[in-house]
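sry for the spam today, last one i promise. struct tokens for design, 365 residues
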């Protein structure tokens, strides 16, 4: 079974303590937006405003069995929020979202990207076999697992997984990251373990897939010592590198071993190459001034019980320099003017945090 949910039920067991944010300086953080519901991917628009996708908090139903066997309930609480000069407002609302009854573990709008003025692209997650959409209300069927342009569905990513199934595994789709480029959009399907090209016109095509690896079975499974089990890649993020290649970060699937996540360099037409490794549960990546920054949703692993994330600068020869760990289950990264903007509390459990516990913070680099 594919591991497609990024905000896993394991996260809801974390005892979350929100870290007080100090004045911004090198590695310090300050809040620029708050009151958000499961904030995820971030992007700057051409006019300089910052936008963040909110996966929402689910709703009153219908409720159904979720991809991890837990109950999830549907609602239209997903949104996109605009942040500009100290003001924030939701510019897209009423987008589909599924979550536990308390609003935790939400899947909904997952990323945002711009191509010139008037072209805002948003991915909406699914986290399930595409056939599961038949259990959703009409809007859920029409939006979940899709790429949107200015709030309207334009490409059925989950539908492509159902028909093409690029990695050959059990059909599973969770569009998680989008990069808008001239001529088309690059989309990461975390459930499908694939990187896709969505052209302006024509059919979706596969750029690359990311294979599973064999890793040590965790002791709590009770298997004989030395037993290996398969771990899926679960790619979560894509960015354009300074060399013009695509770079993809992976979360890794169960058992989410510490230090197993990688960043791949992808040139269309060639197999992905490992660019940097030794990370844990990557949720986003980005470049600024030629330097790679990696955002980990759980620095000590999703099964560790520790909700602290980390922002890491990758130095020469792959050396990792932690910029800050004053993050609680972060969900997205944008870089600009020597600062990092991170969506915080993307997967905090409810309670104790409650709806609207998410924020966007600015980190001095």
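last one done:
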């Amino acid at each position: 079974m594919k591991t497609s949910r990024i905000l896993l039920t394991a996260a809801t067991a974390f005892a979350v303590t929100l870290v007080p944010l100090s004045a911004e300086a090198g590695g310090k953080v300050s809040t620029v937006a708050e009151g958000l519901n499961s904030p995820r991917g971030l992007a700057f628009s051409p006019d300089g405003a910052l936008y963040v996708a909110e996966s929402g908090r689910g709703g009153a139903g219908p409720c159904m069995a979720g991809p991890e066997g837990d109950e999830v309930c549907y609602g239209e609480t997903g949104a996109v929020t605009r942040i500009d000069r100290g003001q924030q407002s939701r510019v897209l609302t009423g987008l589909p979202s599924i979550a536990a009854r308390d609003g935790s573990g939400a899947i909904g709008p997952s990323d945002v990207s711009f191509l010139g003025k008037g072209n805002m692209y948003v991915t909406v997650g699914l986290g399930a076999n595409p056939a599961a959409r038949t259990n959703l209300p009409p809007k859920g069927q029409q939006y979940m697992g899709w790429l949107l342009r200015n709030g309207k569905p334009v490409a059925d990513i989950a539908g492509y997984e159902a028909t093409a199934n690029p990695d050959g595994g059990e059909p599973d789709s969770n569009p998680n990251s989008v990069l808008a480029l001239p001529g088309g959009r690059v989309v990461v399907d975390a459930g499908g373990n694939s990187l896709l090209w969505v052209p302006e016109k024509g059919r979706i095509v596969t750029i690359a897939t990311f294979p599973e690896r064999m890793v040590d079975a965790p002791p709590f499974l009770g298997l004989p010592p030395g037993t290996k089990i398969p771990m899926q890649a679960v790619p979560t993020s894509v960015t354009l590198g300074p060399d013009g290649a695509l770079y993809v970060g992976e979360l890794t699937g169960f058992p989410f071993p510490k230090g197993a996540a990688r960043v791949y360099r992808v040139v269309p037409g060639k197999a992905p190459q490992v660019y940097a490794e030794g990370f844990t549960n990557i949720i986003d990546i980005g470049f600024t001034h030629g330097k790679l920054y990696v955002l980990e949703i759980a620095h000590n692993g999703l099964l560790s019980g520790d909700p602290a994330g980390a922002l890491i600068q990758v130095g020469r020869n792959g050396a990792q320099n932690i910029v800050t760990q004053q993050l609680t289950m972060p969900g997205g990264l944008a870089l600009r003017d020597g600062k990092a903007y991170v969506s915080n509390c993307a997967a905090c459990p409810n309670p104790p945090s409650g709806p609207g516990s998410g924020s966007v913070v600015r980190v001095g680099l």
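The chain has a mean pLDDT of 90. ok im logging off now
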